[in-house]
Amino acid sequence: MAVASDTQTLWQEYRKSGDQLLRDRLILTYAPLVKFVAGRVSASLPSHVDEQDLVSYGLLGLIGAIERFDPGREIKFETFAMARIRGAIIDELRSLDWVPRSVRTRARQIERAIATLEKELMRAPTDDEIAKKLGVTDDELENSLWEISRTSVAALDELWSPSGSGDQIALIDTIEDSSGPDPETSLELTEVREALAEAISSLPEREKLVVTLYYYEELTLREIGEVLGVTESRVSQLHTKAILRLKAHLSGAQREPAET
User: Fold this and answer.
1) How much is the average pLDDT of 18-28?
2) CB-based contacts of 244: which residues, under 8 Å, 6+ apart?
3) Hey, which of 85, 161, 169, 246 would disulfide with 61, CB 3.0 to 4.6 Å?
4) What phi, psi does 52 have (nearest 5°)?
């Protein structure tokens, strides 16, 4: 959605006056962004999660983005806002904590197994190697991935601490927007982006393609399935597996400096 000259004027007037009516006009102008982001998040959630609820959560993120955005920065508002809309939705879903504990536990077990194997093998482990490490069959691993994919909320919205510091950054923000309000934040985002790029490059080819198409090309899981010639549920499994590998790789990278 291109920002027209009248919208730019609206921004200028709102920044000067802070008038709530002008803010409300900006909210209406950018409301389609909330619907778009909510639709993408909804595509990876169980059917009982109401997309309208996600829109409501995302609207709070849009309002916050409008109030915080500086038109003088060399960054599109859409880029700035989408990360914060997505973040508001994820934060609210996390606060509801509807993901079963057993699923969270299984996801952490798979993530740890991948991290251990990657360190031992110096490469991305195969599904068979992961299953053996966990002491389960290949079918049981596939079922676990399916359960995780059905309830997965965070994906690359998961928070990660650069260099093991206390400050946390959403990984998706390193794709959406690399600029920050201060040099320290910008440096941290650069560090995370470099680590994320390295982790993505280590993925098996199909998983790498899924991550690229979903996060960088912004295709839906269904559209990726059409590209790969597989079902949407299979793409969801590949996506889940890729995210667990990325988180395992990044968590391993964080631990290495402390170990050395």
Assistant:
1) 90
2) 107, 110, 111, 114, 148
3) 85
4) -65, -35
Mean pLDDT of the chain, nearest integer: 79
> Dihedrals φ, ψ of 159, to 5°?
-85, 145
Question: Residue 169: enclosing H or E segment and its boundaries?
Answer: strand 169-170
Tokens 């009248």 locate to 6
| Of 80, 85, 101, residue with least CA distance to 41 | 85
Please give the average per-residue pLDDT across 3-13, as a whole number: 77
The whole-angstrom separation of Cα 247 and Cα 213 is: 18
| Residues 116 and 251: beta-carbon distance below 8 Å | no
Looking up tokens 């969270």 gives 104
What is the rounded CA–CA span in Å between residue 51 and residue 43? 9
Given a cut of 70, is residue 51 above it in pLDDT? Answer: yes
Distance CA 141, CA 230 (A): 19
Q: Where are the beta strands (DSSP E) in 16-118?
A: none
CA angle at 250 for the pair 65 and 206, rounded to the nearest 5°: 90
Convert the pLDDT of each residue in 99-111 to its tens digit.
Answer: 677 888 888 899 8
Q: Please, what sign has the CA dihedral across residues 228, 230, 232, 233?
A: negative
Residue 114 is predicted with a pLDDT of 92
Tally of CA atoms within 13 A in the half-sphere of 103 that contains its CB: 15
Q: Which long-range contacts (CB under 8 A, 24 or more apart) does 248-251 make?
A: 248/111, 248/112, 248/114, 248/115, 248/118, 249/114, 249/115, 249/118, 249/198, 249/199, 249/202, 250/160, 250/171, 250/195, 250/196, 250/199, 251/111, 251/115
| Cβ-contact 250, 199 below 8 angstroms | yes
